[in-house]
User: Fold this.
Amino acid sequence: MENKGLMLTMIFEAESANYGEGIGNVASLKKMARRDGEQYTYISRQAIRYNIIEQLGEKITPTRVEKKVVQFSPETTIEDYPEIDFFGYMKTIKGESSLTRSAKVRLSNAISLETFKGDLDFLTNKGLSDRLGKEMKGMNIAQSEIHKSYYRYTIVADLDQIGIDDDINLKKEEKTRRVNKLLDTISLLYRDIRGRREDLKPLFAIGGVYDIKNPIFQNVVEVKDNKIVIDSIKDVMFEVIEKDTMCGLIKGKFDNDREIIDKLHAISMPELFKNLKQKVKDYYESN
Assistant:
């Protein structure tokens, strides 16, 4: 089977979408610092993976506890469960060696493109306490870090390895169905957190189906002054990349829509995902 990878780097806009371990009564967002000393919040790849599986609409892979660790049940296979086909597994049985499959669909963390400035929300449950009348008992005070930003993440899929595991080799129609359903899911992905539903659908996306599997745009897609930085994207357009690259845009969010369309030949987001799905179908039909 021809060596092919599906790669897509996307930008979405979200607010306070992944919390880590809190300190006292302060809920802390997951974040990291860069060498400029600024802090950037992020949504972990595990959180994004969770939302993808939750919304994929396929059977959830059964689990059980083995050696005091929860893991996928040993009898599960990629034939029945796209989750472990995409994201791999490690299954251990007492007295036997482990069975492992590396991920064939890999996600990066979604890292904010705007810095975290330490904003806090102040919370109480006064509304419930008021129902007690004058007693005003049981009020809890809490604080929660908040951050609204553009976020960037990348998904890479090894198309030639999906649907294949040991003696299992799924039909090409099933491989096409699974990958295209994955594309449908990320095109309208969302995340439920603390009573909110955050929209993770891409506002800008660039990628394609390539002969190489490098996440080529992962470290070059940036937003500056509410504009997509075009020059850094153009600078990685090797000939082998440019001929297979497609760009999708939702107009009205960024201040350089015209430049994105002119220089990156951006099309609408539904059209981008439609084209990607056709590329995936063509690939599996020809292999």
User: Anything to note?
Assistant: Residues 223 and 244 are 23 Å apart (CA to CA). The chain has a mean pLDDT of 94.
